[in-house]
Amino acid sequence: MTATYNDLYLDVRKGLKKTGIEAASLEARELICAASGKTREQFFRDLPLYAPDFVQQKLEDLLLRRMQGEPVAYLVGEWEFYGLTLTINHHVLIPRPDTEVLVERAISLIEEAGTGCRILDLCAGSGCIGLAVANHVKECRAVLVDASAEAIQVCKQNIRRNNLSGRVTALHGDAKCEPDSTLWDFDVIACNPPYIPTGDIPKLDPSVRDYEPHLALDGGSDGLDFYRLISSLWANSLRLGGTILFEVGIGQADRVKKVLEEAGYEDIRIHRDPAGIPRVLEGHVSIG
Hints:
By secondary structure, this protein is of the alpha/beta class. The protein has 2 domains: 5-68; 82-284, 3-Layer(aba) Sandwich (Rossmann fold), CATH 3.40.50. The protein has helices at 5-18, 24-36, 40-45, 53-67, 72-76, 100-113, 128-136, 149-161, 206-209, 225-233, 253-262, and strands at 78-81, 84-87, 118-122, 141-146, 168-172, 186-191, 238-247, 266-272, 278-284. The strands form 2 sheets. It has a 7-stranded mixed sheet with strand order 5-4-3-6-7-9-8, sandwiched between helices. α6 packs across α7. The chain starts with a helix and ends with a strand.
C-alpha cells in the first residue's frame, strides 16, 4: 500500500496509543527511523515523501514486536541518556531517567576532585554512567567494569561512538569478587547494581522480565547481595576520602544505608529523585 512517511507515522502512533504506550509519538518516530535507516532530521524532512515497500514491511515487523512487549530501545538498537546516544542490545539494561540522579551526584563529586579525577562505573552495562560523567567533565578519566563480556563489547562501542576513547576504558571484571590490583585510586565508584530480589523477578513487567538481562537484575534473595559485596570488597579501590555511590530500588535506601555503615563508610547521605523517592546512597572512605 502506498503511504507517505507522515501516513506511517500517524498510523503507528495510533496503534501504539491503543496499546497504552504513553510515549507513542516518540516511539513511532524511532520505529520509522529504524525501519528506514533515516536520522531524525531526515525523518522530519521526508514526511511528505512516499515510503518504499521494504520500509513499510520492516516497520510492520517492528511494530508487531513492540506491541507484543519488546522495548523500543532494543528494537531500534540505541537510546538517549544524559545527552549521549548509546548503542543498546539485549545484553544490557536500557538506561532510565532514575539513573540521572546518580550521574548528577557523580559529576558534582568529580568536579570537586579536580585535576586527575577518576571514576569507576561498576556493573557498567552500556557504560551510561561513566560515559555521561566523562562527557560532562572533560578532565575526568573513567573505567567501565562489567562481568558480562557482551556488555563490555557494548561499552567499547559506546566509547567509540561518543568519541571518548582517549579518556574512557572498558574492562571485564566481576563486581562480586575482589578487584584486580590495577583497579584502584578512584575518586568515585558509581554503581547501579542488580537489586531486584530473586523471587520478585517473575512479577516484573513483561517488558523487563522477558527482554532485559536477568544477570543485570537479580540481586539475590533480598536484593542486597551486590551492595554487601561491593561495599566491602571494593573499598580499597577508592582514594582516601573517596565516595561510593549506589542506585537503589524503592524501599531499599535504609537497608543499604545500614550496609554502608557496617562496612565503615562515613557521612552517608541519601539523595532523592524528582518524585521524592530515595534513589542514591552516598558513602565516604575515611581520610584518617
